[in-house]
Each structure stands twice: as C-alpha cells, then as structure tokens.
Amino acid sequence: MSERKLRFGVLGCAGIAKRAVIPGIQQSELCEAAAIASRDEEKAKLTAEQVGIPVAYGSYEALLADETIDAVYIPLPNHLHKEWTIKAAEAGKHVLCEKPAALDAAETEEMVAACAKAGVTYAEAFMYRHHPRYAMIREIIDSGEIGQIRGIHGAFTFNGAANQGNVRFAQWMGGGSIYDVGVYPLSAARLILGREPEAVTVNAFFSPEHDHVDMMASGLVEFSDSVALTFDCGMWAAGRNTLEILGTDGIIEVPSAYVSPLNASSNFFVTVKGERREVEVPQVNQYALQADDFARSVFYGEPQKFDPQDSIKNMRVVDACLKSARERVRVII
Asked: Would you give per-residue pLDDT tens digits along the chain (333 residues)?
C-alpha cells in the first residue's frame, strides 16, 4: 500500500505492548511500529528484535526526540501516564495511552488539555470498544428485541496474586483491580447505556500481602431510570471476562467480553422468550481497529469513536469507586 503510515514509537516494553498492541499496530492498515524505548537499552533492543521493530532507544527522551516518529503508545505503569503523555504532547507526538488514563480524573484533564494545547490527538487504549460486536449489540438493544434494559452485570477477574513483583500490586504506581480490570465493565456500561452514572457503592478486599491495593472489588453503579451496573473485578480470583445485559424481554450474554484471544470466537448470545441464539461476529483484531481509528483522526481529522472527554468521564467513575471502597460509603458522582 502506498498510503502513508502513522509511525508509532512505543514507550516501554510492557507485556500488553508485546503481546497485543504492537502486533495490532503492525496488522493495521494505516500504522506501523517504528521504534521502541526502554530505560534499559539492552531490554529495548531485545524487545525490538522479538517483535520486529527496527529502532530501539535506551531512554524515552531519545524516542521523543526522533522527528520521524508521529505518535507514541504509552503502556507504562499507571503513575507515569500523565508525565509521559504531557512530555510526548510537548514533543509534538500524538498519544495513544494505555488504560486507565491516569490515577484520577484531574490528571486526565491535564493530559487532555496538554494534547489539545499542542494540537495532537489523544486517545485511551480501550481496544474492546472498537470491536464490531459492540455496535451489533447496540443495534439489537435499539431494535427493542430484548425490551427495556433492567440491568447490566460485568465481570473481569484473574488470579495473578503469586507474582509479588507485579506493578499492579504497588499502591504508589496505581495498582489495584479497579484500575486494572474494573475499568472495563465500568466503561462498557457507559457505552451501552450512552449516559453517565449518578452514584456508586463499592466493597473491596485490600490485601496486606499486596501493598494494600484492592485485589477484589464488587460494586453497584447507579444510572438514571433505575438501571444499574453490578460488577466485580479482581486480581486474586478465578478468571472471568464476561458481560450480561438484562432486558425486560431478553438477555444478551457476551463471553470474552473485553479481551478476545486472536483466532477465537467473538460471538455473543441472545435469549428471547426462551430461545437462545448465537450471533456470529467477524473475526478481527480489535487492537488493529483501534490503531486505524486513531490514525484516521490524525491523518484526515475524522472524529474519533471515543473522544478525549470520554477518558475524563470514565476516570470520574473510577475515582468514585475507589473513594467508595476506601471509605465504605455511597458516592454521588
């Protein structure tokens, strides 16, 4: 293809970058992974060789100084998102930042403002929302087939508790299950309902063995019209990755709702009047779709599917959930 590609630099060698996002960029139509940086130059070189990236840098600053790089993907620990988003924006780079956007909504507002001031595109890397099945789910809901929505339940859990050195278990780095996996059902409910919640109540298990981060959390998120999301998220529990939408006349069940293994089915199920059917969904790389949506905004000025304000709104919900869990109170948003 002769069309120009958006040249991405990757700040950091995180597992999610190597396992999913870099391959997604490489498989996209409009992007390429052109460079990677680490504070350990040998690690950067090794990772670059492993994933097929041509250039490796021994510092993030060196990558930002590379004038051939158009955009950066930031998969750094959560507490570094604000710093490096702002530095990237000031260097004239467009920014695709891993979720959660930052440690709180105030930090996210600073990041979004810095990108707007620099005239660069900003996006939060919620890849699942770019999968076509969510548009399909919305069409089914809008058709009235499952009736009025009465409730949503989302779950995202895994058991990684034995890995004591994981940055997810460091409080000062923004560790905890709400930040890491709870953001998925929270954002999914907002996406499906098309509005913001009014209040949250969350109960969490803060583990002394893991720097007192929330290793498990369960919550109630209240929306208007007496509709609620119930969710649970955890890093010390058996694995689940599901979403259920309950209507007056039917149910939509989404297995592998947020993370779908490549070459695995992304189909979902609809049950109406006792009849359950499987809805076939195209097999796509949602990371590649995310990259291309980002590139179309950069190259052609097309509106992003999810604008930067969405990151701020989602972090307001995360802030409320964490406050509720820590103080054991209902929090009005």
From this structure: 447 899 999 999 999 999 999 999 999 999 999 999 999 999 999 999 999 999 999 999 999 999 999 999 999 999 999 999 999 999 999 999 999 999 999 999 999 999 999 999 999 999 999 999 999 999 999 999 999 999 999 999 999 999 988 999 999 999 999 999 999 999 999 999 999 999 999 999 999 999 999 999 999 999 999 999 999 999 999 999 999 999 999 999 999 999 977 777 899 999 999 999 999 999 999 999 999 999 999 999 999 999 999 999 999 999 999 999 999 999 999
This prediction has a pTM of: 0.96
Q: Are 243 and 185 in contact (CB under 8 A)?
A: yes
Q: Rounded distance, CA 131 to CA 134, Å?
A: 6
Q: Output the six-digit token pair for 194.
A: 């098309």
CA distances, 74 to each of 157, 198, 264 (Å): 23, 31, 27
**Active site (annotated) includes residue 99:** yes
Token pair listed for 179: 């930040």
What's the CA gap between 294 and 288, in Å, rounded?
A: 10
CATH of 132-283+315-332, one of 3.80.10.10, 3.40.50.10490, 3.50.50.60, 3.30.360.10: 3.30.360.10
Instruction: Choose, from 82, 93, 99, 305, the residue flagged as catalytic.
Output: 99
Phi-psi region of 170 (alpha: psi -120 to 50; beta: other; left: phi over 0): beta
Q: How many CB atoms lie within 10 A of CB 31?
A: 25
The hierarchical CATH code for the domain 6-127 is 3.40.50.720
Round to the nearest angstrom and report the end-to-end CA distance of the chain: 48
- Residues 112-136: b if buried by 16+ CB within 10 A, e if exposed: bebbeebebbbbbbbbbbbbebbeb
Measured from the Cβ of residue 173, the count of other Cβ atoms closer than 10 Å reads: 19
